[in-house]
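In the design runs reported in the main text, the only information available to the sequence generator was the tokenized backbone. The following block is the verbatim input for one such run; it is reproduced so that readers can re-run the procedure and compare outputs position by position.
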């Protein structure tokens, strides 16, 4: 038994070092875009913690990810949204880049977060002041504004519809999960966990 003790200790030390390394790598991984997120969130008057939570859910901070519906990058922005953003900016160079190679354009983390924040704020404008503003905005980001209208239509006054009532009306399981996961994570981050 004594001759195995150094081997067991070596394995224990290696396990502890691996766990510590994994923890710090994960912290680096999920916070390496914090400065970009904060900068773009401020420009579009969004809470950076909400944007961070969206990116966490969409891609877990993988800038190269391409979605099933051709969404690109950290915030899974569609080519259509990118082109609309480029047109609205009035910068011909952005319009040219999104026309020539929208995937390359959206693979740049700065541009992706910029366009994603622009779109998130554009959607939020529709629901500003609503009781379920955040959940409606997230649902629209995931499933489209027309679905949010459909889910909030039964309410006499959609502006007063509670967050819980709205989430219960979401009839696409993946969207319901998306909204609740982001809101849960966002509120955890706000509480400082």
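Verbatim output:
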């Amino acid at each position: 038994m004594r001759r195995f003790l150094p081997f067991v200790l070596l394995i224990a030390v290696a396990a502890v070092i691996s766990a510590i390394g994994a923890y710090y790598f994960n912290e680096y991984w999920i916070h390496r875009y914090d400065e970009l997120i904060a900068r773009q969130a401020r420009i579009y008057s969004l809470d950076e913690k909400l944007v961070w939570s969206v990116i966490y859910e969409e891609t877990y901070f993988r800038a190269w990810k391409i979605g099933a519906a051709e969404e690109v990058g950290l915030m899974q922005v569609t080519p259509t949204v990118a082109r609309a953003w480029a047109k609205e900016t009035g910068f011909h160079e952005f319009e040219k880049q999104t026309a020539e190679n929208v995937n390359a354009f959206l693979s740049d983390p700065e541009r992706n977060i910029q366009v994603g924040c622009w779109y998130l704020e554009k959607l939020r404008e529709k629901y500003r002041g609503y009781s379920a503003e955040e959940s409606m905005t997230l649902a629209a980001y995931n499933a489209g504004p027309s679905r949010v209208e459909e889910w909030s239509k039964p309410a006499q006054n959609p502006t007063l519809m509670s967050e819980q009532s709205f989430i219960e009306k979401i009839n696409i399981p993946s969207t319901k999960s998306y909204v609740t996961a982001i809101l849960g994570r966002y509120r955890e981050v706000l509480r400082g966990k």
